[in-house]
Write a structure and sequence with these properties.
The complex is a heterodimer of chains A (249) and B (387).
Chain A lengths: L1 E5 L2 E3 L21 E3 L1 H17 L3 E8 L4 H10 L3 E6 L6 H11 L7 E5 L10 H9 L3 E5 L1 E5 L2 E8 L2 E8 L2 E5 L11 H7 L4 E5 L28 H14 L4
Parallel strand pairs in A: 1-4, 1-6, 4-5, 5-12, 6-11, 7-11
Antiparallel strand pairs in A: 2-3, 8-9, 9-10
Helix pairs in contact in A: 2-5, 3-4
Chain B lengths: L16 H28 L7 H7 L16 H14 L1 H21 L2 H12 L5 E4 L15 E5 L2 E12 L6 E8 L2 E8 L5 E5 L11 E12 L11 H35 L1 E2 L2 E2 L4 H30 L4 H25 L11 H13 L4 H13 L6
Parallel strand pairs in B: 1-4, 2-4
Antiparallel strand pairs in B: 2-3, 3-7, 4-5, 6-7, 8-9
The chains are: A alpha/beta (249), B alpha+beta (387).
The complex binds flavin-adenine dinucleotide.
The site of flavin-adenine dinucleotide has 21 residues of chain B, from strand 1, strand 3, helix 9 and helix 10.
Chain lengths: 249, 387
């Protein structure tokens, strides 16, 4: 079972985002970076599949800045076997990222490609499906359960309260939703061993971005909270507010 | 509120990638797994034992020792682990310090191969817990005066005496007990449940409430020949262990200070009085500036200390200075943070007062502030205040 997991270095999810001076990117001063949480789930699932199969290899791949070795090492420390770092300056949109990954996969064999359903920075949820299209492979996005049976993937996804179950030929591209696996903490031993695992670095060959960011705006500040007393007068106030101000009644 | 670790001088840049990963892993674990349970554990006066297997799984127990398939963390990575654990609570760091530096270290350094193979794997995977008995009711700063005594018999030793303030005492499967044999200090491995070996928890504490502290008593405890640590002779044995643990305390204390600073900073930005965030007042900023300056100095001292240890040139006097400095400033910072939080600062919804109370112990154990003053003083003057 050879699995390639796509991971992305993203701004930590608890960051209080500030817009940078250029107005089109965030201010990165003092910002912490992490592996995107859904990618972590994908890494965990890949390691579990390999362990269950009793053989195979998990390769993690990222398209990202030089600093993204940290996220690759984290995945190696969790238990991945090898890492591939396709370096880029600046940011790529989903199409360019999928293109860069497609080029980087040239000559690599795999039975399965896993990635997070979306990176928690731009939230496009597009790289996995786009890559599947480029590779002309079957794909299921938002997988919440996955087993390998008789050389095929059996994948579940939740859709509007219905659980869809797919049988998918391999190789395939699947994107991970919450619930697919519970990511482990890398062990300290794993971290110390990770530096001895192979990490190949290459400049990414990426197509031109198809889209550009024109402006970033923070969401409008939330309106003040109005407290209404739980009294008959309060109820009148509440009804009046819902009728007249909010116009929902 | 998510924890934001202060790093004013960008010391991150001076760490290796592994060191950063080790730190971040333990930091995340503390945030996710430990922080949700500590307030209640502290209130109840219990150590969250259910987390021991997870800590073991991470590999923090004796993680720096060169043995078997242990992680073999370098001194800086190990120090960062201590910093992050004590950011959670001094009791958590104490648990790990005792297990690693005071129990596994002497077995690793002074034990026979049989003792190592019997205990180190179990102590590392958390299936066995250890404690370290040096202090006695009448001998704290002066452990050389200890009264606990071992007498050789045909098939081993008989141990008599008492130890006090022993961290992990009631949890321990094995106690490293220091006692005089023919007038010389030696280390013995005493196992839970041996006849004549009693353990009593000291529960009435205002400090380190989420840590188990116990009295040990030995009444004609019969030990086999294999209970003696063959390599340790004299006060240097236990002192070498303390030196390992003090190194961890230096880092840990700064971790507690970092938690307090972060809390006071966030509080000051969100709490409004007189129509302004209180962090806008000069006096509040003065305190924050003082805190971050001392934290930064402490972080730099620890990092340098770790690099010296890595090179193998660190001296016990340098460790004493860092332990003394770290505890002193951490306690002061915790007190300041407690004050800056106003009435909220006395509740257990916030951490400052818990750290403040804990740090009173941390300042006292493993050599009090004053004892370390005299150790450094003796080194720089050549004149011995203990003589
Ligand atoms: C929570 C907790 C956990 C502990 N865990 C352990 C453990 O696991 N194992 C263990 O062996 N011990 C442990 N200890 C004991 C600890 O190491 C001792 O408390 C410490 O060494 C101080 O000894 P003492 O309490 O007897 O104080 P004392 O030695 O009586 O000191 C009292 C005061 O006198 C001062 N003083 C003493 N001698 C001098 C001097 N020559 N010159 C100037 N001033 C002096 C001290 O600085 C201090 O201020 C623990 C203590 C606590 C509080």
């Amino acid at each position: 079972m050879e699995i390639i997991v796509l991971i992305k270095r993203v701004v930590a999810t608890d960051t209080r985002v500030k817009i940078g001076a250029d107005g089109t990117s965030i201010d990165t001063a003092g910002v912490q970076y992490i592996m995107a949480p859904y990618d972590e789930i994908a890494v965990e699932k890949a390691i579990q599949l390999k362990t269950e199969a009793g053989e195979g290899k998990v390769t993690v791949l990222t398209v990202g800045p030089n600093e993204a070795t940290k996220e690759l090492r984290t995945a190696l420390a969790m238990g991945a076997d090898e890492a591939v770092h396709l370096t880029v300056d600046g940011t790529l949109d989903a199409a360019a990222t999928a293109g860069a990954i497609h080029a980087g996969l040239e000559g690599r064999s795999f039975d399965l490609i896993l990635c997070g359903k979306q990176a928690t920075d731009v939230d496009d949820a597009a790289v996995g499906p786009r890559l599947a299209a480029l590779l002309d492979l079957p794909s299921v996005a938002f997988a919440s359960a996955l087993t390998i049976e008789d050389g095929k993937a059996v994948v579940s996804r939740e859709n509007e309260g219905v659980t869809e179950v797919y049988e998918v030929d391999l190789p395939a591209v699947l994107t991970a939703q919450k619930g697919l696996a519970e990511p482990r903490y890398p062990s300290l031993k794993g971290i110390m061993k990770a530096k001895k695992k192979p990490l190949a670095t290459d400049a990414a060959t990426a197509p031109e971005n198809g889209s550009t960011v024109e402006a970033l705006n923070l969401p409008p500040a939330r309106a003040d909270v109005v407290t209404i007393e739980p009294t008959p007068e309060g109820m009148q106030q509440l009804l009046a507010a819902l009728r007249n101000d909010k116009k929902v009644l | 509120m998510a924890y934001r670790a202060p790093d004013f001088f960008d010391l991150d840049e001076m760490l290796t990638e592994e060191e950063r990963l080790v730190r971040d892993t333990v930091r995340d674990w503390v945030s996710d797994r430990f922080m949700p349970v500590i307030a209640e554990a502290y209130r109840k006066g219990t150590f969250p034992e259910h987390l021991i297997p997870e800590m073991a799984e991470l590999g923090v127990l004796g993680g720096n020792l060169d043995y078997g398939d242990f992680p073999r963390l370098g001194p800086v990575a190990y120090g960062l682990v201590m910093q992050e654990l004590e950011r959670g609570d001094s009791g958590l760091r104490s648990f790990v310090s005792v297990q690693g530096a005071l129990v596994m270290y002497p077995i690793w350094r002074y034990g026979s191969d049989e003792q190592k193979d019997k205990w180190l794997p179990k102590l590392h995977d958390g299936s066995a817990i250890g404690c370290f008995g040096l202090t006695e009711p009448d001998h704290g700063s002066d452990p050389g005066g200890m009264e606990t005594k071992a007498v050789a018999t045909d098939d081993g030793y008989v141990l008599n005496g008492a130890k006090m303030w022993i961290t992990n005492g009631n949890l321990a499967d094995v106690a490293v007990v220091w006692a005089k044999l023919d007038g010389e200090i030696r280390g013995f491995l005493v196992e839970k449940g041996m006849d004549g070996f009693e353990v009593m928890e000291q529960r009435a504490k205002h400090s380190l409430r989420a840590s188990v502290t116990s009295e040990l008593s030995f009444q004609d405890v019969k030990l086999g020949k294999d209970a003696l640590l063959p390599g340790a002779k004299g006060l240097g044995g236990p002192l070498s262990c303390l030196n390992q643990a003090r190194y961890g305390i230096a880092w840990g204390a700064i971790g507690a200070a970092m938690a307090c600073y972060d809390e006071a900073l966030e509080y000051g930005k969100s709490r409004t009085q007189f129509g302004k965030p209180i962090a806008q007042f000069q006096l509040y900023q003065n305190k924050l500036t003082h805190m971050i300056t001392e934290i930064t100095k402490g972080q730099m001292m620890n990092l340098r200390l770790g690099r010296l240890k890595e090179q193998g040139t660190v001296t016990p006097f340098q460790v004493s200075m860092a332990k003394r400095n770290g505890c002193f400033h951490a306690l002061e910072i915790a007190r300041m943070a407690r004050d800056m939080l106003g009435a909220n600062g006395i509740t257990d919804e916030y951490q400052a007062m818990r750290h403040m109370c804990n740090l009173e112990s941390v300042k006292t154990y493993e050599g009090t502030h004053d004892i370390h003053t005299l150790i450094v003083g003796r080194e720089i003057t050549g004149l011995d205040a203990f003589a």
